[in-house]
Task: structure prediction
Amino acid sequence: MNFQPRSELFSAQRRLPFDCIALLLQGGGALGAYQAGVYEALAEASIHPDWVAGISIGAINAAIIAGNPPESRVERLRDFWTQVTSTAPWDLSGTPFLDWAKSDNTRNLINQMSAGLAATCG
Result:
């Protein structure tokens, strides 16, 4: 079916030529953040899926979409992705520990310890 929206119609007035809209979300880590953006674009166009399904990270996004009313879905997705991508608990920048942990001497020490452990276990 060829569907070309007419620009003179507002998105809320536009009728899609489908009886049912399904949103299928695949897995793949960072792809989930893109999925949230796609859903946001759909919501801005007043397109709300009747069915949502996903696998892996897509299932998490699908659960957030299905488990919230349409008016709060984008906000909930944004909250989730802000929390998931936050480095706040692990952000040790500006601390002496981080400088030590990233140093060549520390890396060499860990490599030597790992090699010694492998030699005694093998």
User: Anything to note?
Assistant: Confidence is low (pLDDT under 50) at residues 1-12.
